[in-house]
Amino acid sequence: MTRILYSLVFTLCMPLVLLRLLLRARKAPAYARRWHERLGLGGDLRPGGIWVHAVSVGEAIAAAPMVREMLRRYPDIPVTITCMTPTGSEQIRKLFADKVGHAYLPYDLPWLQGRFIHRLRPRIGVIMETELWPNMVHEAKAAGVPLVLANARLSERSARGYRRVAWLVRPMFAALNWVAVQTEAEAQRFARLGVPRAAMTITGSIKFDLKPDEQMLEQAADLRGQWGARPVWIAASTHAGEDEQILAAHRRVLESHADALLILVPRHPERFDDVAGLIEGAGLNGVRRSSGKSPMRADQVLLGDSMGELMMFYACADAAFVGGSLVPHGGHNYLEPAALGLPIISGPHSFNFTEISELLEGAGALQRVHDQGELAARVCYLLSEPTAARQAGAAGLSVVMDNQGALERLLAGIDTTIASGGESARAQSTR
Question: Tell me: the pLDDT tens digits for 8-25?
């Protein structure tokens, strides 16, 4: 009855959901396209194989090593990846081209999810991190599709939100065949929401298994070489309310390092034009990556308004600020700059990556700041003290290397689940 009530409310809200799509399409036109896929129609679905759901860009990037290994291990089994956002869709096609099927996941109504599952007929569903929906899980289980929650993470804040609707989500969590959870603390939160302990294995985070691509590193070296010998720092995955602080901090950095270059990479593409306006309004000389022009000596900011190049931008920098942390969005992936040996700066809000950020902070790889003044001071210190910057970067890289192996543990559980139809993964997790 609770799921029926949820479905009824969702149905009544559909006009508002579609209106929101139209409003978002004003800044990001891709939201106005491919609506039929959101209704369970069309899309490049490849039946009878592995279904991976990665909600957006970050999850798609995290899933990439796993998907590549699946393609290698199971060359005769098709893979279909779903997502929810145009940026996620673009990232999936950039990573895999036509090697995988791809479509948007339909809205979480039983008849839409049922139609999608019936058309796809997957052997297994692998859901990245915590992107679960009640009807999606119910329809998959009704069709006999085993479900794995991969690289599962659950902050205390998210767990509190789920507990408020425990009447709805407990059956959803209890129905999962196997949860490859990142930490013991998160396993305890999942258990309180209804996931059987026998269905969980602490595998660690597959984001530690990040290996920078050699071709990307060469491209970054070539790009950095075009800019000449100047200090470079990056502010990555920034949100509204952060860019103004970052630009103010950069103005203070320029007082000590007149030739410093800031690479500013907003999290959402629909904000690119707004952030370009902020750069101009701050009185700074900026150049957009999309223009194809390389920053000249007089340019003070490079706006990273392209897709799929964040790791390359990180590789061009001497120090990295990770966004979503000066404002309460919970931070973003700290392991990307760590894997490149960069000293990391974060704001106080890292609740989406609590364990990882604390691990890096404890190793001396990550420093927290609370405002634009502290950010400017930390950047100036790292640019002025290259030995200290290298030590912090090396500490972060050691944390990454010491915690690798989650990907192989995850793949072993998926292999077992595919071979057994879902039951053996639970048995393996209790050994």
Answer: 999 999 999 989 888 888
How many domains, the chain? 2
270 is a catalytic site residue: no
Within 8 A by CB and 6+ apart from 233, the residues are 253, 260, 261, 262, 263, 317, 318, 319, 320, 321, 379, 382, 383
Residues 112, 26, single domain; the answer is yes
CATH of the domain at 335: 3.40.50.2000
pTM of the model: 0.80
Residues 233 and 353 in one domain: yes
Q: Which of 59, 242, 309, 336 is catalytic?
A: 59
pLDDT per position as a tens digit, 360-389: 999 999 999 999 999 999 999 999 999 999
For residue 227, the enclosing domain spans: 214-402
Read off the pLDDT band of 133 (50, 70, 90).
very high
Report how far residue 100's alpha carbon sits from residue 95's, in angstroms, rounded to the nearest whole number. 10
pLDDT in tens, 200-225: 999 999 989 988 889 999 999 999 99
Q: Please classify residue 29 by burial: count the beta carbons closer than 10 Å to its beta carbon, then call 0-12 exposed, 13-18 middle and 19+ buried.
A: exposed
Take residue 3 and report the two structure tokens written for it.
Answer: 């799921």
Both 305 and 191 in one domain: the answer is no
376 and 418 inside one domain: no
Whether residue 281 sits in one domain with residue 145: no
271 and 180 housed in the same domain = no
CA 68-74-76 angle, to 5 degrees, is 120
